[in-house]
């Protein structure tokens, strides 16, 4: 088993192992990607045990309800794999899907400095809530309060991940919530 060290900013989480599936080493994975079918194209995935990152070769992919069932090469019984329950499955950025215009990986948004269109610093983006209609950005303001900003074109004017900033237009009433 080879071990490789990756930097977390080079990694994207695509799923979390929830449980074993049967006794032949398969696992149920809750996908954290927009398109669970992308597992069909993946040949290798990285298991983050918390202490180390282990590259695993995907041998088989199946789908059941909202879960992905994976079988890894060399893991042939339940005893080999059950210790990895609740562990993240990662991919390197070079295996990530191509993003369209105005699309970002959540991991790249967390930590951005949020500024108003007038250049006033509001705070730091600390979370992204994924709702049905649109995402909502959670900004931790300087006073410790949270500001919720809908991720819509009317509000999000510019995202510059290189500079580490997001420029927003605050709709009337947003600061009052």
What's the topology here?
Blueprint: E1 11-21, E2 26-31, E3 44-48, E4 53-64, E5 67-72, H1 78-81, E6 88-92, H2 106-109, E7 113-116, E8 121-130, E9 135-141, E10 146-150, E11 156-160, E12 165-168
Parallel strand pairs: 7-12
Antiparallel strand pairs: 1-2, 1-6, 2-5, 3-4, 3-6, 4-5, 7-8, 8-9, 9-10, 11-12
Task: Describe the structure in your own words.
With 177 residues, this protein is mostly beta strands. 17% of the residues are buried. It contains two helices and twelve strands; from the N terminus they run βββββαβαββββββ. The longest helix has 4 residues, at 78-81.
What's the β-strand tally?
12
| Secondary structure: helix percent | under 10%
Q: End-to-end span in angstroms?
A: 52 Å
Strand count, sense and barrel status of the largest sheet are: 6 strands, antiparallel, barrel
Q: Strand-residue fraction?
A: over 45%
User: Can you list the strand order of the major beta sheet?
Assistant: 1-2-5-4-3-6
Q: Count every helix, treating DSSP H or I runs of 4 or more residues as helices.
A: 2
| Radius of gyration, whole Å | 19 Å
Low-confidence stretches: 1-8
Categorize the overall geometry: elongated
Mean pLDDT: 85
Structural class: mainly beta
Summed up:
The protein has 177 residues and is mostly beta strands.
Features:
177 residues; 45% strand; disordered N terminus; elongated; mainly beta; 12 strands; single chain; 6-stranded antiparallel beta barrel
């Amino acid at each position: 088993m080879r071990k490789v060290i990756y930097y977390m900013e080079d990694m994207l989480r695509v799923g979390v192992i929830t449980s074993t599936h049967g006794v032949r080493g398969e696992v149920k994975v809750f996908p954290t990607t927009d398109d669970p079918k992308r597992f069909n194209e993946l040949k290798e995935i990285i298991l983050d045990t918390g202490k180390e990152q282990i590259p695993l070769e995907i041998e088989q992919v199946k789908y059941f309800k909202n879960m992905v069932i994976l079988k890894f090469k060399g893991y042939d019984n339940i005893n080999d794999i059950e210790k990895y329950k609740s562990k993240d499955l990662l991919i390197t950025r070079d295996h990530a899907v191509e993003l369209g215009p105005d699309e970002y990986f959540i991991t790249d948004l967390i930590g951005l400095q949020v500024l108003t269109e007038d250049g006033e610093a509001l705070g730091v983006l600390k979370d992204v809530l994924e709702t049905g209609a649109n995402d909502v950005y959670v900004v931790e303001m300087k006073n410790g309060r949270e500001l919720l900003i809908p991720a819509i074109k009317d509000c999000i004017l510019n995202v510059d991940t290189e500079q580490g900033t997001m420029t927003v237009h605050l709709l009337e009433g947003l600061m009052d919530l």
